[in-house]
Amino acid sequence: MLRCARDTNNLIVMSRALRQFLFSPQSVAIVGQSDDAAKTAGRPLKYLRQAGYAGRIYPVNPRRKEVLGEPAYPSLSALPEVPEHVYIVTPTEAAMEAVAECGTLGVRVATVLANGFAEAGLEGEAREARLRDICARTGLRIIGPSSLGIVDLRSKAMLTANAAFDEPDLPAGRFLVASHSGSMIGALLSRGKARGIGFAGLVSVGNEADLSLGEICGATLDDPGIDGYILFLETLRHADTLRRFALAAAAAGKPVLAYKLGRSEAARELAVSHTGALAGEDDVAGAFLAGCGIARVDTLDGLIEGSPLLTRLPPVAPGARKPAVAVVTTTAGGATMVVDPLASCGVDIKAPHVETLARLRAATGINVAPARLIDLTVAGAQYAVMKAALDVLLDAPEYDLIVVVVGSSARFLPERAVQPIIDCAQAAKPVAAFLVPDAPQALAALGASGVPNFRTPEACADVVAATLRRRVPRALPLWPGNRVRPSAGPDVNQSRPSTSQTRRSPQDVDARHKAGHDEDAGRVLDELEAYELLDRLGIARAPAVAVDVGTARAPTLPFPYPVAVKTLVADIPHKTEAGGVELDVRDGDALLAAIARIAANIGRRGRDLERVLVQPMIAGLGEVLVGYRVDRDVGPLVMLAAGGVLAEIYRDRALRLAPVDLVTAQEMIAEVRGLAALAGYRNRPAGDLDELARTTVALSQLAAGNQSVAEAEINPLMVLAPGQGVVAVDALVRLR
Amino acid sequence: MLRCARDTNNLIVMSRALRQFLFSPQSVAIVGQSDDAAKTAGRPLKYLRQAGYAGRIYPVNPRRKEVLGEPAYPSLSALPEVPEHVYIVTPTEAAMEAVAECGTLGVRVATVLANGFAEAGLEGEAREARLRDICARTGLRIIGPSSLGIVDLRSKAMLTANAAFDEPDLPAGRFLVASHSGSMIGALLSRGKARGIGFAGLVSVGNEADLSLGEICGATLDDPGIDGYILFLETLRHADTLRRFALAAAAAGKPVLAYKLGRSEAARELAVSHTGALAGEDDVAGAFLAGCGIARVDTLDGLIEGSPLLTRLPPVAPGARKPAVAVVTTTAGGATMVVDPLASCGVDIKAPHVETLARLRAATGINVAPARLIDLTVAGAQYAVMKAALDVLLDAPEYDLIVVVVGSSARFLPERAVQPIIDCAQAAKPVAAFLVPDAPQALAALGASGVPNFRTPEACADVVAATLRRRVPRALPLWPGNRVRPSAGPDVNQSRPSTSQTRRSPQDVDARHKAGHDEDAGRVLDELEAYELLDRLGIARAPAVAVDVGTARAPTLPFPYPVAVKTLVADIPHKTEAGGVELDVRDGDALLAAIARIAANIGRRGRDLERVLVQPMIAGLGEVLVGYRVDRDVGPLVMLAAGGVLAEIYRDRALRLAPVDLVTAQEMIAEVRGLAALAGYRNRPAGDLDELARTTVALSQLAAGNQSVAEAEINPLMVLAPGQGVVAVDALVRLR
């Protein structure tokens, strides 16, 4: 029997070593390998042999001497060496035993297929905790459980039980796929192959009990054979490691493309029920991914076809102008299918500058119209015309990207309007193509030349929009890297201490899903205390004085009537509904009467009201909501929304990872559609949006300090005329 | 030389005859047929021969004795017979001459390829008028100009110059394609072929100078080989004939599927510039298509793949319950890609009833979760499990449609989870399939069995949502069929009189685009007159009295103070901005002062104000806007929107062809998101939405009468508490 002595110095395996054990192990064992290749557990050995994996393979099956014609070993400890990577394809309980054996033997990486863990209630959660415990004790790193496997198409390490991998000659490429869904690695592989698109490897990360998606991808960042990443996300579980990976990827110039389930409430429900995975509010996910510099697409085709364009167009640097697109076509109807969703996504499709237009006309001999669609239809599909137009557009400084939409000629006459695109493939500026007919040969030629190309107008628009939206991620403090929140296993990249006690229980998880954020946090400040916080942040707020409820005569106020009167207690957040607010109080007598009514209302709730808050009535041109909160998944966020119930119903808000700078705050203002009402919409008076931006920045600074605030909401913030600023007239602050 | 005597009795060609001349002519001539098959004008003869068209073909080319090895005729009049269908592929001026010759000879149908007509300014518009004139005088019917042709894949009449038709063995199917874009007939043909989907025929309708898309499709309604229609629309030009066709198709049980460009403002701009085609507001188009019983999809794949499902699911009858979908899967992650957009579209994805769940568990042996996604993942992909689940779901009364999402097994093991779907293809209830991996063989097998199947999750959701949204169209008065508005040529189906004088000039067209509706119409009523109209419609409105501006003492009012005072003149619609409104006027003295101020404000505009309107101040729980207007494209529309600037910014409104019934009005209320604020949102007091529905119905009745009103807008309509109704407090009415 073979045993490895535990070498404690070895606990910190370096990233490069982890990458090797994960993706190009010298030796692999398949625990539970079946003799029946038609069964799930029969697949890994078949796939490894079929692909021609060159390492050593050890099938483990205690019930058979032979599997698929090869000798089988009775157990891991019976192997002649400690395999670098063990794929465990047995059912749940046997898998637990195999993991324990891996730990004992000093195996570096095990991938676990079985389900019955965190997604399966308390018992499963306990199993998962045992897995993490083994990792923490032994240095074993685990992919899964519930992982359909990990595949490297270069080393041919086909450690997967996914039915779609049952073929030789799978194309290798330069992007790594990582997916919360095991089925999707088969979908991406096969759909990519049908398009001539290969991947460096594919990982089904399963429940991420130990290794998270971010850690697995992060381990490959220095792999020179990997140019970027394609993520299929169901959840933002482990947002911390995902963000750390994404920032490092951005720094390395390796783009990340993601599809994230959970656009709809219904899908988020499902995501919760089927994997134990959590999916929070979709716009929080959107803000997070954008803040990580990850390009998010909305179509499956876009996820498969998006990487070539992403590779060609760098993210937008802070303060750089919004990128602009030229759309040029031999078919206006077909091109409009692309323009339509592009424009709906807010992509800037520019008409040519006057000089560009003149050059276009001179070069093509066509009287090109001064329109946003550069329409060459009248010329028919001609090489010379298309090539001349592309040359002019590639030279035109107003464009960052040229999208060419080619009509029916693309099918049988690609030499006319497709070849000119291929002949521009090496230009400094990217040219992307959508071919309106089915044109497999032309698409293959475009792909072979590295021209980003798309099968559907929707995927084309989706990828172009996602690529142009991509920003250089801001270097914010990592969340929760700035406090002690250990990960489950020894972190091979960061060498932080590890325990498993801080893992959330399923109940936690459930509560978090319902609340969407950290509602079990600490004390709520009363309004005066909240105003003090605003004062410290430099946010203008209404003058306010506390008045004792018992007062016999109206106090002298430092501001004129009319005034607003409100309960001054921390734990009645919905003051209005509790009868705790009176507005437009016109004089001293009315003030005393209002105080008495409020006290009586609060008294009816069994509470003794000691003080009220008195403020002047402040009328603005409009009301907005500015909020800050620490989201448990993604950390500090700042939010801006139009005021009132309609904005709430329309969910019209802009979110960013906090803190934000002034440019970002201005972007947020532009993003909230309802704020158009304060920007001169239909001759309405404009508001002081500059000061609104500064206030947003100021509130977001809560993320930069000691982070004692869990949530702060100014609602409403009155927006006054330009130069007159903004004024908070109510604020709710909850500490952590 | 051959000439046909004009037979005036023949002017009214019956629909069946027109269909034959269009789609299966016994003889065709190609005017301008080139000897070079690589040229656009060389294609038709090549395609006809390649496809094996069995009729007589006459190439016409005055400059050659032979084209593509066949004898060429010098002119149409030199042919041995009058061809039934002439395809004219010459440039513009020669095409005009050929059309004239067709008219003279008594040709029944000519299709014109040339551009240079309505899309090309005044000169082109004049050419188009000449074409219509020839039609009116001679009985010739024209497709185009700017038509890439008309193809029947059964008769092999390949009258097209589209480059994508250059192959034999094009599959025939049972849906007819009609497209405003000529390029798209090639795209649909080739993309369909790649999926094994054929069409009965394809028509590029061009500028619709004579035959409109609706007329062409309508001529085929009694074709037993055509089961339905696929439309690619750029515009709602000729909405009248489109609607007439769609209603007849619905009556015949032939579904219509449409893709309509113009979701974005940018695309609408382009649509205007490139074809002279008009695209109005997108939600007007949506209301129109829905009102015609046309299923509108948003993806190109959905347009290609949608017909099998549409054929299986009838439109929802008035008052029937909302259809519900079961989603069953072997891969939760993959299925969520479909559920996500389905749920976002408002499709009712139902969890199984408790009895269904019990039967599912008994039949499959799986502890199926009581969730909206029926997840069979734990069983792996097994025939028996999937078949048993489908059998239960097909029997379950709560479902109208089963959507199956199959994971990786679909690629190489279709016998496991795809075959059970095929084995349910004949069930009374439709089963649709989305396969997550690339699985061409499984898709082909599904298609061959008639199972609706989809390549992308987006197309699947798009088609399912569009199909379930489809309603039996209401039998409204046709617009403008209820007044004399002759079509361009002799109407072969309706035999209405014909002139071309009523065609709009390009200037008209431009104005119409800008206005979106008929703003050049007649007199604006003053508010008292408008209230009289509301009274006649039975719509509650605020009491109101007119007061002379010159009055020396405050009048005795029939309602208490406070009151609102407004100018009472018809031609100052924006009263507030003109200083013509005072609110919350508290007593008689204030009233006199308010009248004086208003008169002064109006006087400053050089107007002599004679009377003001005085109304009580009415507070509601919320304000809404109810509007009616006669859209020049689609006719009478009723509109419902939440009140206020935010609702306007969010464009949150529901539109329907008018008049509407109560059920439809209730649907509209449910559709306006902002009206949630009046439906008990977050414990807010609910409003009298029943009365709001009745008011919407009442206003929509303007469409049923003599239609003298061009536009009527109640804004705001105050919504009171349930049982207390609604009250119009301002109204604007414009006559035609």
Report on this model:
Two copies of one chain form a homodimer. The first copy, chain A, has 736 residues and is an alpha/beta fold. Chain A is built from 25 helices and 30 strands. In chain A, the strands form six sheets. A seven-stranded mixed β-sheet of chain A has the order 9-8-11-10-12-13-14, sandwiched between helices. In chain A, strands 15, 16, 17, 18, 19 and 20 form a six-stranded parallel β-sheet that branches. In chain A, strands 25, 26, 27, 28, 29 and 30 form a six-stranded antiparallel β-sheet that branches. In chain A, β10 (172-179), α5 and β11 form a beta-alpha-beta unit. In chain A, α3 packs parallel to α4 (121-138), α12 crosses α19 and α24 crosses α25 (689-700). The model of chain A is unreliable at 1-13, 272-279 and 481-519 (pLDDT under 50). Chains A and B meet through α5, α8, α12, α15 and α23 of A and α5, α8, α12, α15 and α23 of B.
